[in-house]
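Thread: Class I SAM-dependent rRNA methyltransferase, structure

OP (GT): Posting the sequence first so everyone is looking at the same thing. Length is 390 residues per the record. Can we get the structure tokens written out before standup tomorrow? I want them in the notebook alongside the other entries.
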Amino acid sequence: MEYGKVCLRRGEETDLRRGGFWIYDNEIDWYDDICPAGGIVDVIDSRRQFVARGYFNPRSKITVRVLTRDPDEVIDAAFFRRRIEAAWAFRRQLGFSDACRVVFGESDGLPGLTVDKFGDYLSFQIVSLGMEQWKDAIVETLIDLFHPAAICERGDVPVREKEGLPQAAQVIYGTLPELVRLREHDAWLYADLLHGQKTGHFLDQQENRGRLKPYAPGRTVLDLCCHSGGFGIHAALYGAQSVECVDVSEEALALVRKNAAENGVQVTTTCANVFDLVKAYDEAGRRFGLVICDPPAFAKSRKALEAAYRGYKELNLRCLRLTEPGGFLVTCSCSQFMTPPLFEKMLTEAAGDVGRPIRLIETLIQSRDHPACLTAEHALYLKGLIVQVL
């Protein structure tokens, strides 16, 4: 099959040959008039040698997203089925079955596509024009492979507008209940797939929540930016003396209370801005045996990184002060531009500023069902540290 051609400027093929997935508009020399927006194109270098095949959007800063480096691989419905089948087989190999990310974009060779599984329900998100062209084929594959009770599309993300796509959240197959019940380690949790954050639940922290088991027994726990209370509920199940869950969203806290009741544990909920709350608690002399800090992304661009660094440092400085001697701090960042070394540097500086030595116990990344393809930009976005505060 013949595809339109996109020719790179001299030397711009290097990143692609090293495993990159994105081609930016300023890396392109020319492209054929027959290259349709959202269509499949062949990428060639300045010597007109084949480099990769992907989908094309001249209206996007990321003009081409790579699907294959095999010149003989045809991009059709069967291609997407093979990739989704391989992604699901990999998750099963890792031991995932009930709740997990089935497809994680570039890491599964499907840039622009995310698919999450919550028991009998699926939630997916498409963030590129090229992938949007294959939505019907993708949905057909998901129905055939998983026989779900319902499929929810979470297209309500601003990045779609950069691709010329509308925002929408909708049920496109089956009947979706208001809340879906899922199993996570020792807990039963509810998720709102249609209106909740991301695709309904923070699956990327699933394995990290299970890591609380050695640190929670007998501790007073403060769970900051708790969302639906995944960390706090697990801490309570693992024997915490008390758990306080804090979030700025009352809707999230209502879900925390429902999750606590479902698991037969006691938690208190506080609706507050975490920066204001940690300052007030610090000044009041409050101390906790286990502090969990999992805020939303502060740096969504490189330009915002400097301000984000200051924000993370201020928040973590207070968290360190709130942690009793010998207690533990679990701190995370999902800002892709806040790299693991930079995050560790920030926490080390904060510990120095408050005069509290810290011992690094564990480093955290996103759950294994979110495998980070290290040649793909920003695939490794979640990082965290568990430290003992002395």
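GT: Both are above now. Quick notes for whoever picks this up: The two ends are 65 Å apart (CA to CA). The mean pLDDT is 95.
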